[in-house]
Amino acid sequence: MRFRQLLPLFGALFALYIIWGSTYFVIRIGVESWPPLMMASVRFLAAGILLLAFCYCADTNSPRYVRCSMPR
């Protein structure tokens, strides 16, 4: 493979390395200053915002829920 074809892969691996490595730092500081429920809430809120942004930017349609698929 050529280097230009591998460049997005290296970029994704580098982003994974930075994001994964920063979680330990954030958890270390968060444990000292925030209660556990607030830390979990912030994590899920951030993940939800990132997923919504990803779904908004993706070319596929987001899932549509209809009344017949909901439990009674």
TrEMBL record:
Membrane topology, as annotated: Multi-pass membrane protein
Protein name as it appears in the record: Putative DMT superfamily transporter inner membrane protein
Subcellular location: Endomembrane system
TM helices/strands, residue ranges: 37-57
Origin species: Escherichia coli
One Gene Ontology term, aspect cellular component: plasma membrane
Keywords from the named record: Membrane, Transmembrane, Transmembrane helix
Stretches assigned to the EamA domain: 13-63
InterPro entries: EamA_dom (IPR000620)
